[in-house]
Amino acid sequence: xRGPAIGLCLALAGCELxxxxxxxxxxxxxxLPPELQRVLDDYTIAWQTRDAAGLAALFADDRVVMPNAxxxxxxxxxxxxxxxxxxxxxxxxxxxHRFEGPLGYIIGEYAMQPGAQAAGRFVLTLTxxxxxxxxxxxxxxREYRRQQSQE
Length: 151
Description:
The chain has one domain: Nuclear Transport Factor 2, Chain: A. The protein contains four helices and six strands; from the N terminus they run αααββαββββ. It has helices at 2-13, 34-48, 52-56, 76-83; strands at residues 64-65, 73-74, 91-100, 103-111, 120-128, 134-143. Strand 4 (103-111) and strand 5 form a beta hairpin. The radius of gyration is 16 Å and the shape is globular. The protein starts with a helix and ends in an 8-residue tail after the last strand.
């Protein structure tokens, strides 16, 4: 399973691995490395405060990126336009993560408020910039379908 995931990251990020680096072990939710937890924390704060510029700053600027709220765009200015007017309650919880060299991902669940039942799932594909900061290349989520009670 790791091969296809890293291949997807390579295709999305447009990078190549120069030296093999062992992948990180799976996380158990709350055990994200601080630099990856920062991505989730900064995303949450920017979303809650409806800060489109803050959200855009979390995305890679030198390539086509896939924010969740619009079709693929290039550059932070376009990401900012995409997220302008978006935001509200949000809580993100990592379920798993991996990274290998400058590429990685976080898989998790989101809720509308901290402590609330998960409303859906997300995947963030990440790339590390020249300064060692993780940036988002793609942000995809999907709401969980709730079974409707049959009366």
